[in-house]
Task: inverse folding
């Protein structure tokens, strides 16, 4: 068998007798791998070998960048590339624009006099969720809200419907 694999017989028997022994080098390597994995996970899997090396150095663990890179390769850790910012608002359109009835006056003297709404997106473990909220500007209380996996007109209409239902269909 040693001839087939191209190794010496003494080397083969040495490996047979010592393959289960833990060496100091392997212990050091396992410790480094766990530190690299922890730093990688703490930074949301975005940092590469250079940034992880700097972070470990700040914590008192001096290692070469190539050593960190080898540890990452051994563990199949690949940093996520940052996405380029993409603006999703289209301000240059020819669609009709609703008038600003509040004119930046967000104070109300009675409940149900002025409502304001907004929508936003939230990152969850299952993907993006969109949230639409309606607040009463008098009490600053959320009077209606709706969540969905898609940002549609139905999302906003549902939030408004809930607000109307909770406030007993106020007039005006």
Result:
């Amino acid at each position: 068998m040693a001839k087939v694999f191209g190794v010496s017989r003494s080397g083969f028997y040495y490996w047979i007798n010592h393959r289960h022994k833990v060496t100091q080098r392997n212990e050091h390597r396992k410790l480094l791998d766990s530190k690299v994995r922890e730093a990688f996970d703490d930074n949301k899997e975005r940092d590469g070998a250079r940034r992880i090396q700097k972070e470990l150095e700040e914590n008192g663990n001096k290692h070469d960048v190539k050593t960190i890179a080898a540890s990452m390769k051994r563990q199949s850790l690949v940093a996520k590339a940052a996405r380029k910012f993409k603006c999703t608002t289209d301000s240059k359109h020819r669609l009709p624009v609703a008038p600003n009835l509040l004119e930046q006056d967000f104070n109300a003297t009675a409940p149900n006099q002025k409502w304001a709404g907004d929508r936003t997106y939230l990152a969850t473990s299952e993907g993006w969720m969109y949230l639409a909220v309606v607040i009463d500007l008098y009490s600053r209380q959320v009077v209606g809200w709706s969540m969905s996996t898609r940002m549609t007109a139905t999302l906003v209409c549902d939030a408004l419907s809930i607000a109307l239902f909770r406030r007993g269909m106020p007039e005006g």
User: Anything to note?
Assistant: The beta strands are 115-124, 127-136, 141-148. The CA atoms of residues 164 and 170 lie 7 Å apart.
